[in-house]
Amino acid sequence: MLNRTAENVARATPEPLARKVRGISDKGLAWLFISPTILLLLAINIFPLFWAIYLSFTNYRANRPNEVVKNLGFANYQRILGDQDIWIAMQTTAHFVFWTILLQTLIGFTLAWLIDRKFRGHAFWTTLILVPMMLSPAVVGNFWRFLYEPQIGLFSYVISFVSGIPPTNIQMLSNVSLAPWSIIIVDTWMWTPYVMLICLAGLRSIPEYIYEAAEVDRASNWRQFWSITLPMALPFIMLAVLFRGIENFKMFDMVNLLTGGGPGSTTEVASITLKRQAFESWRTGYSSAFAIILFVAVFGLANIYVKALNKVKQR
Amino acid sequence: MKSSLKMALGLASAIVASTAVSNAAHAEDLTLCWAAWDPANALVELSKDFTKETGIGMKFEFVPWTNYADRFLNELNSHGKLCDLIIGDSQWIGGAAENGHYVKLNDFFDKEKISMDDFVPATVVGYSEWPKNTPNYWALPAMGDVVGWTYRKDWFSKPELQKEFKEKYGWDLGPPATFDQLKQIAEFFQKRQIDGKTVYGASIYTERGSEGITMGAMDVLYSYGFQYENPKKPYEMEGFVNSADSVKGLEFYKALYDCCTPPGASNSYMGEGVDAFKSGQVAMHMNFAFTWPGLQKDENVGGDKIGYFVNPKGPGGAQFAQLGGQGISVVSYSDKHESALKYIKWFANKDVQAKWWSLGGYSCLNAVVKDPKFPASQPYAQAFLDSMAIVKDFWAEPSYAPLLQASQKRFHDYVVAGQGSAKDALDGLVKDWTQVFQDDGKM
User: Fold this and answer.
1) Half-sphere exposure in the Cβ direction for B66 (13 Å, CA)
2) What DSSP element (H or E) covers B181?
3) What are phi and psi of B34, to 5 degrees?
4) Does a structural domain hold residue A42?
5) Which class in CATH covers the domain with range B25-144+325-388?
6) Within an 8 Å CB–CB cutoff, is residue A262 touching chain B?
7) What is the end-to-end Cα distance of chain A in Å, rounded?
8) What is the mean pLDDT of chain A?
9) Helix (H) or strand (E) segment spanning residue B223
């Protein structure tokens, strides 16, 4: 059937065009087909990257189009690496990435393990757990802002009911100590289902006969978990950690909606600092240098991690 | 058949003709860009008269305050043609003039005999001139605005509260004359039960993202003795920005935030302030005067229940208020300069300005605000007039954005997050602002 269609197409192709196409090698044809995609990638990914690298060595400011652009060498990079506020933003980012990944992995894997028991109604619970992940971050950010509201927020009332602290004293978004946790809670609520899904795929990929063999060997449930379940699901868990790590390193929407980086600069993660420098202070050259530093950091860390992941997979 | 053919042809030519006419009209349409707020609605109403008079249609592009600067500065920086006219914030004037975003209006003003002497002097300096205090005009003062205060007149006049207040503080409960008095009133109302509801002292600006906390803190700092620079040596800030008086002013602002604001009010600006006042949460409310017409009309807190007062005096008796408001400019990149200038000429007219005030806009024309009937024209008119007489504005330099970002960070870190001292915050601010001016080659 397929051959017949190909023959029909070949027959319908005008002779001059057919002659030209016949002259193209397989490799040439392959290049012909992928070149639009490559051109698009070059235009929207590669060119801006190289342009940003160029700008990072200049004093260019997008709001001063008439100003002479000076080459500053590595001055922007030196200034960023010596800027205490940048380091504080990086620490805030690291704190946020660490705790969100830890909580999401622990809760996500636990949920996946429970769902994998295939109890009655497990499909319903799986769907229900996935709901937060399906919502738009803008919606999630806005409704959690209301939930955290000290005077009318449900979250504050629940905590108040449990702890006895007056709800107006539970100021999740205004309190310096609580504000970072308020974001961690929301991110964990939203993205744990994603980690759960990946872990569930990992758990379901473990062949049943391995457990049967372990049963024959009278291995306890605990032993089975440590010796079979966890090692075999580990590559999947690591993959989930990689995805969430990259996502949370560049986290912007949730922080912007919930705290805007405040109170003070308590929740000002690197992406918020970058946005402020680039689009509020209009230091385009400086912010390009910062973006390149962030890119190199994420790229480097991700590379090291992927190597570790490959080693685990090969075991 | 013939008649139906004629009819069809006639109909077709009518459609073609009407399309051509409507296209011609649309070609003349002007787009005016501004913030999405109450005065913008008044301007839409007012501009209908312009369309009636000139046949030039008006389209409007209004953006919420939180995105207003980002959106329109991006538009100007990218030389966009979206806006023919723009009502840009007062602090943009330096950058817009130096980067060629606005059309210089001197020749036009001379030709049309529009004199800047006819406008409130503070608004001319604040909204039109760059460099400041030089006769170089880039905008026509359009919307006068200033930070002032509203208070709950009905609560203040409760006899039992008046008695208790007098016993506690030794003076009659009423609009405060000094910041110390303001704090005493705020403390008095904080967490008080009124009509079965817990209320709070005051709503003040604490917003971090755009300009909120800077507008609020500066509103207090000016009257404590804060100065942007050495009046004799431009850009010399050491000892002026971080003077002992400035430190006291910032400490006061933090104390007011800590003692007397509603719970969770750590990111509050114009909208949040209005909400707090309208919902009966606060006894006093710091906000720009543009909010007053809306509050006056409010069923729950307006009418006789609301009063207005000018920013109080500092400890040394100095009294200033933070300038708000904007001028209207013609965008250089527009293709419709002629029509846009027609609009400016029309807007400068005395009758139009009088109607602008009656609709809820704040006119800057002397003929309107110095009219003997003006103070009694609205309950807030006198407070507005008095406030406009004591205004000061933030830097209007081309680098106003990084200057503003620095003060937002330093003030929020200290006032809301409680990090470091007021002295640290202001010393840091001198450092940040010095860096900005050094980058600009001004120091």
Assistant:
1) 12
2) helix B179-189
3) -160, -175
4) no
5) alpha beta
6) yes
7) 45
8) 91
9) helix B212-224
Report pTM: 0.85
**How many residues can be counted in chain A?**
315
DSSP, residue by residue, A95-115:
HHHHHHHHHHHHHHHHHHHHH
**Average pLDDT over every residue of B106-133:** 94
Contact present, B245 and B316 (Cβ < 8 Å): yes
- A149 contacts on B by Cβ (under 8 Å): 264
The tokens for A302 are: 């991700």
pLDDT in tens, A27-83: 888 999 999 999 999 999 999 999 999 999 999 998 887 788 999 999 999 999 999
Distance CA A274, CA A295 (A): 12
The mean pLDDT of chain B is 92
Distance (Å, whole) CA A9 – CA A24: 17
| Whole-number Å distance between alpha carbons of A260 and B215 | 18
Tell me which chain B residue has its CA closest to the CA of residue A153: B264
Residue A20 lies in a domain: no
User: Residue A261 is which amino acid?
Assistant: G
Select the residue of A85, A150, A282 nearest B264 (Cβ to Cβ).
A150
Rg (C-alpha) for chain B, rounded Å, is 24
Contact B397, B94 (CB under 8 A): yes
User: If 0-12 CB within 10 Å is exposed, 13-18 middle and 19+ buried, where does residue A88 land?
Assistant: middle
> Does pLDDT of B311 surpass 70?
yes
**Which residues in chain A have their CB less than 8 angstroms from residue B208's CB?**
260-264
Nearest to A191 by CA among A113, A269, A256, A245: A245
Which pLDDT band, with edges at 50, 70 and 90, does A239 fall under?
A: very high
Task: Pull the structure tokens for residue B241.
Answer: 């920005």
In a domain, A192, yes or no: yes
* Residue A3 reports pLDDT greater than 70: no
CB B158 within 8 A of CB B164: no
Fold agreement between B25-144+325-388 and B147-322+399-439: yes
What does the domain layout of chain B look like in residue ranges? 25-144+325-388, 147-322+399-439
For B290-333, the DSSP string reads GGHHHHHH-TTT-GGGEEEEPPPB-TTS---EEB--EEEEEBTT
| Contact call for residues B154 and B281 (beta carbons, < 8 A) | no
Q: Which fold has domain B147-322+399-439?
A: D-Maltodextrin-Binding Protein; domain 2 (3.40.190)
Q: Cβ of B441 under 8 Å from any chain A Cβ?
A: no
Token pair 């757990």 is at which residue? A129
